[in-house]
Amino acid sequence: MLPGQRDGAMLWHESITNFLLKEMDIGCCEAYPALLRSSCGNCIMLLHVDDILSLCTARFLDEVLQPTLESKYKVSIEAMRRPGDELTFLKGRHVMADEASMLIELSMCLTG
User: Fold this and answer.
1) What would the mean pLDDT of 11-20 be, rounded to a whole number?
2) Three-state DSSP state, 12
């Protein structure tokens, strides 16, 4: 581990979660700080370092989440809006199968 590496991840988590709480009332789950939820329940997020997987409506994404994040950060957003759409998160391929299900294909690296 390089000097500052551990502090960097902790400081980033603190910075992004404080921003989300202040700007959109999205706070951390006490038992699992990588899981975030808006107070009204219209957005749920899984935070892994600088990657975020979010479940919200297209309207919330387009009108609230994306513009708010872009006001402070440089972001790249992939969205699944209809069956067949896909995105990548944590080295996995996520495909929207239908309105209620998602297929997740993990990439496996085997060494031997």
Assistant:
1) 91
2) helix
